[in-house]
Amino acid sequence: MPEIKRVLVANRGEIAVRIIRSLKEMGIVTAAVYSEADRTAPHVLMSDMAVGLGPAPSSQSYLDQKKIIDAARKLKVDAIHPGYGFLSENAAFAQAVQDNQLIFIGPSPRAIEVMGSKLQAKQAVADYNIPMVPGTSEAVDANKQALDQAEEIGFPLLIKASAGGGGKGMRVVTSADDFESELNRAVSEATSAFGNGAVFIEKYIESPRHIEVQILGDQQGNIVHLFERECSIQRRHQKVVEESPSAAVSPELRQKIGAAAIDVARAAGYYGAGTVEFMLDQDQHFYFLEMNTRLQVEHPITEMITGIDLVKEQVRIAEGMSLSFNQEDIEIRGHAIEARVYAEDPENGFLPDTGVLRHYQVPQGPGVRVDGGYYQGMEVPIYYDPMISKLIVHAKNRQEAIERMIRAIEEYRIIGVKTTLDFCKFVMMHPSFRAGDYHTNFIKDHYLPGTGNNHREHYQTLAAAFAARVIDGKNPPAASSNQLPANSTWRHRSNDQ
């Protein structure tokens, strides 16, 4: 079996820092790459060696396959870890790494290719009886046949790009009159974003919960799941707050959805770390969405509840080692929550807000972890994802984890850019989140930007009243206009439970 002694991390920011830390603990020599904008970034300074890739735009640096492989050969590394984003789910890059006699710390190029297309993924798992949302199994064009298929599925429906993600190439259609125009828009957007205009249609499930399952597989065919994560707090189909385990998943459902995730991985001949994503409807039925063939942004909460370092496991699997544990060895230990700290303005549609971090102080204390890629005085550049860090907390139960997150958010000090910290605190204090009764429309239903700051004491009062009513088996109290602060961003809807 090959031994990995030197690894190039083909990424930047917090994920590069996080990977380098685990590699150093394994005694592995670390190599970083950087653009001109990241010359003095933490991931560069903490690496044993580093190579510049060129100008700041990612197309000329972190997405340039030739430059990265040339850097790997120059530094004589054994392997490349792609992190997430950039080239992490690029099958051609994974193949190029292998063609240059280097180890790709991730799944096979074939698995990346199959699961990188939502249509191919649906076809690959068809023999395993995985629950699927009703929809088409092939790409559709703007013609009468597509409209006939849409009407057979029934409105509302969802048009989705086969390649990529992040909400691009995705359209909700509520009537046949809008179908053709929305289909054309989805195709155009998918072509622009991914270079692939293939789209398909499926039934739109209103107010679902987004549940994903972490899996690990070795090259000998052993696959385990590491339980589920709830990722339903989203803006623009992208996650902001995640927790594990999910308050909506019972032990019986956990066993079923975990087994389904393993079958999805098995259908792709998968090895390495991966995540299988599902939708959970209001009747507790779950449906396969897609598989992400990489380390997820939110992987730390799984690490916190299982005690398993996923990066170290990725390296061992890439070396050809078998998993050192089986399914029965893995157990849930407490509860973990992650808040993504973006340089964004929630009061202005979560638009990016770049600038210099004039003051930057991270929270500390028991059960608090910050995965970050910045320090005080650094500039948050315009060229990349605006994530500053991930704030993760762990406690013995969900209630204590929520309170720990509130405390950690209040200790976090960032001056120079607007961030999502106050929004994440708003989530922690909202009665629906505290009761574990929320879904992917949380922001649309509950967050009204542009109305001022949140009021912690008021939300605690509302949450206590809500919890008391739930315990008593009564309906939660309605929040009247004279109960809410005039500048509160929380709004009550008559159908909230």
What does this structure look like?
The protein has 497 residues and is α+β, with helices and mostly antiparallel strands. The protein has three domains: 6-105, Rossmann fold, CATH 3.40.50; 135-203, ATP-grasp fold, A domain (Dna Ligase, domain 1, 2-Layer Sandwich); 209-472, ATP-grasp fold, B domain (D-amino Acid Aminotransferase, Chain A, domain 1). The chain has 16 helices and 22 strands. The protein has helices at 13-25, 42-45, 65-74, 91-99, 109-116, 118-124, 144-153, 179-194, 251-267, 299-306, 310-318, 398-411, 421-429, 431-434, 442-446, 456-472, and strands at residues 6-9, 29-35, 49-54, 79-81, 103-104, 157-161, 171-173, 199-203, 209-217, 223-235, 238-244, 272-280, 286-292, 335-342, 344-345, 351-352, 355-356, 359-361, 368-372, 379-380, 387-395, 413-415. The protein has an eight-stranded antiparallel β-sheet with strand order 13-12-9-10-11-14-21-19, sandwiched between helices. Strand 1 (6-9), helix 1 and strand 2 form a beta-alpha-beta unit. Helix 4 packs antiparallel against helix 5 and helix 12 (398-411) runs antiparallel to helix 13 (421-429). The radius of gyration is 23 Å and the shape is globular. Residues 452-460 and 476-497 have low confidence and may be disordered.
When the domains are counted, the total is 3
Q: How many β-strands, per DSSP?
A: 22
Question: What portion of the residues fall into strands of 2 or more residues?
Answer: 15-25%
CATH homologous superfamily caption of the largest domain: ATP-grasp fold, B domain
Mean pLDDT: 91
